[in-house]
Amino acid sequence: xRPDTETQVAEAIRDATGPLSITGGGTRLWPDxxxxxxxxxxxxxxxxxxxxEALTLVVRAGTPLAEVNQTLAAEGQMLGFEPSALEGSTIxxxxxxxxxxxxxxxxxxxxxxxIGVRFVDGQGQVVRxxxxxxxxxxxxxxxxxxxxxxxxxxxxxxxxxxxxxxPQACTTLQLADxxxxxxxxxxxxxxxxxxxxxxxxxxxxxxxxxxxxxxxASVASRAAALSDRLxxxxxxxQMQGNPWPQLEPAAAGGDLWxxxxxxxxxxxxxxxxxxPLSLDWGGALIHVCLPQGSLPDxxxxxxxARRIRGDGPxxxxxxxxxxxxxxxxxxxxxxxxxxxxxxx
Amino acid sequence: xxxxxxxxxxxxxHRDAIVARLRDALPDAVIDDPAETRAYECDALSxxxxxxxxxxxxxxxxxxxxxLALCHDMQVPVVPRGAGTSLAGGxxxxxxxxxIGLSRMTQVLEVSPQDRLIRVQAGRTNLSVSTxxxxxxxxxxxxPSSQLACAIGxxxxxxxxxxxxxxxxxTTNNLLGxxxxxxxxxxxxxxxxxxxxxxxxxxxxxxxxxGQMGIVTEATLRILPxxxxxxxxLIGFDSSESAGACVAAIIRAGVIPVAIxxxxxxxxxxxxxxxxxxxxxxxxxxxVEVEGTAPEIDEQLSLIRDIAQGFDPVEFRESRSEDExxxxxxxRKSAFGAMGQxxxxxxxxxxxxxxxxxxxxxxxxxxxxxxxxxxxxxxxxGDGNMHPLIIYDANTPGDLDKAEAIGADIMRLCVQVGGxxxxxxxxxxxxxxxxxxQFDPPDLEAQMRVKDAFDPHWLLNAAKVFPLxxxxxxxxxxxxxxxxxxx
Lengths: 344, 487
Prior knowledge:
The complex is a heterodimer.
Chain A: H1 6-15, E1 20-23, E2 37-40, E3 47-51, E4 56-60, H2 65-73, E5 77-79, H3 91-96, H4 104-107, H5 110-113, E6 114-121, E7 126-130, H6 142-146, E8 154-165, E9 169-175, H7 180-191, E10 197-203, E11 207-214, H8 216-229, E12 237-239, E13 255-260, H9 263-270, E14 278-280, E15 285-290, E16 304-309, E17 314-316, H10 321-334
Parallel strand pairs in A: 1-2
Antiparallel strand pairs in A: 3-4, 4-8, 5-8, 6-7, 6-8, 9-11, 9-12, 10-11, 13-15, 13-16, 14-15, 16-17
Helix pairs in contact in A: 7-9
Chain B: H1 9-13, H2 15-25, E1 30-31, H3 34-37, E2 54-56, H4 61-74, E3 78-81, E4 98-101, E5 108-112, E6 117-121, H5 126-134, E7 138-139, H6 152-158, H7 165-168, E8 175-181, E9 187-191, H8 202-206, E10 215-222, E11 224-225, E12 230-237, H9 240-252, E13 259-264, H10 265-275, E14 284-291, H11 294-309, E15 315-318, H12 322-333, H13 335-342, E16 344-347, H14 357-371, E17 374-380, E18 388-392, H15 399-416, H16 435-438, H17 441-454, H18 468-481
Parallel strand pairs in B: 2-4, 3-4
Antiparallel strand pairs in B: 1-2, 5-6, 6-10, 7-11, 8-9, 8-10, 12-14, 12-15, 13-14, 13-17, 16-18, 17-18
């Protein structure tokens, strides 16, 4: 099914007799997702409203992310968050996965820039929440609930985002020689100072990476001050080129795991894991490849680890029973027939 | 006038037994002497008052859990209360309710500069969170104007904002996790590192749920490194339209100041009389603040100066010292106090698309003439969050009704141009019955389903947020199914 309008999406959902997989670009499926009949959202495409001076974009969910980025760039702007870069993603898929890239440490996640949604729930009912203004506490914030709900509560049809000016200048500082566990204190040092760090990561090919963006003179002065501050961690150089798209882990042999932790917990976790594919968000996000079907043996920590590609769904530790009960309850209320495929 | 539902007669009838059970559970924490419970009869929306059945002031999550389990068992409604600074009636009690107040829960539980977070008990005041991390070079960004008094738990309930949201976002963007007690007494941790749990974003949906889903007892908050410096400029204009257009032009040019504040002539005149900040006597003024090191500030301010020149400012005042910066902010910060000198007031807070600013200001001017009421405007212009202040006299019969009527018209205007009823104060009882202006029935139904999952009996702060007629079937289900001797 490839509906072209919200009304058709609602009809398709009302008429569904078995499981449906709401799909955008299909670039971020987790194990066991995408098993139902495909409800292809790419027919709902195009920008509904764009007001650069109000920093507001309203866009249909099936619009390619690339088209969104292009439209904004033509006006000197970008999305108010940095989507994690994948070829072929739709904006709706990015929102449904809360897919947030390196700039999260400064500007927040997709859910922070998402200010309004329209969606069709499991009974084919159209629901609006939020709007097109960035400060809005009118009623419950279902926008956040929908962001990252991975098509388990409803089919997103239209989204409003906060936009932000494209930075005039950008530079990446590099500390080539730190291992991942040693990189985290350096990243914390950078993120803990007045430098407006817009990305802080570690990558096996590049080492420790810190990005600064903004007005040209400001970037230069912050780069100098930050290099000075990080002197104790090794030689700081300004990197040529743009390593940031490589933070999104590529397919590799085995299962791909995504671990969210406090940066202060990263070293203990890393000591139990093979060399990671990347660290991002100052050490709060670890991507690592593990042998197929295996589970990592991790010490107690405050976040969670999830297998996002490979051999079946897995999450550690098991979700809190009360939170799990509420989630089940919410799914049952938004999708009483249980037709939206999801894995949790 | 706002209506409240009839109190539950069976709860009122069992008042003494209910108080006895509460006191049995927490001997030193229960207040039921009417002379003392009266202190809790209202919040900052002081036109509406109701003394609760009892007030309990617990000190720990475990105590809150015990209290809620008890109230759940007795089917007694509960109204959570932070510091009672809500402008929307969010913590106004009902006669059949037990108020659970957070005022004794003020501890700092953990500070981690490496993780850039602080964990506090939810009764701690907003400003004292920043104070606790000041020495480490950090601050907590959301800064509602009540920050000296308001509690973090209340901030989370209302998703509070402040003057610096344009750069730092509101509470939901700075909240990483909570410990919350549900109405049945069960305790749940929501959120996690980066605010992420492994599943649905329940943290995102409880933030701003106005105390209707649970009582937050502990919160983990993101703290940010303090900027090297900040400097405001004051720009005066001979028309509100020029000021509004200047805001749009600054944003369009790619500069995002930390704050852009707007004041109109009635507001400027009132604050001048009160605070004597030396503001120019003009139609509208902007206070624009930028942050960074001295060269960064200079770079941004020179851009802003160039842009402002295009709108024929009657004044462009820079601050060259701490004292001059303080004087620029002085009038803005005393604006609400100054308005209080003019009379009683209702403060609205609808948000509009920045592009609709001239139209909405003109519309408010027309309504003000039509109703013969003074409306002064002081607001966060960068994010479109208006604060029209409607001046009235509480002692003149009918004046409050008239003020509420023009307020409702202004809120309708905000929604009509693509905005919303409330940007940071919340719905509470104040805007409850206008929710139908912004939402269709299925939109409200979807929201109420979420409350059903957290509080199936609708015992928590139930007569708020949703129009009474809309929530009635859910609220009354409990009463209808209740055994006569339930308490």
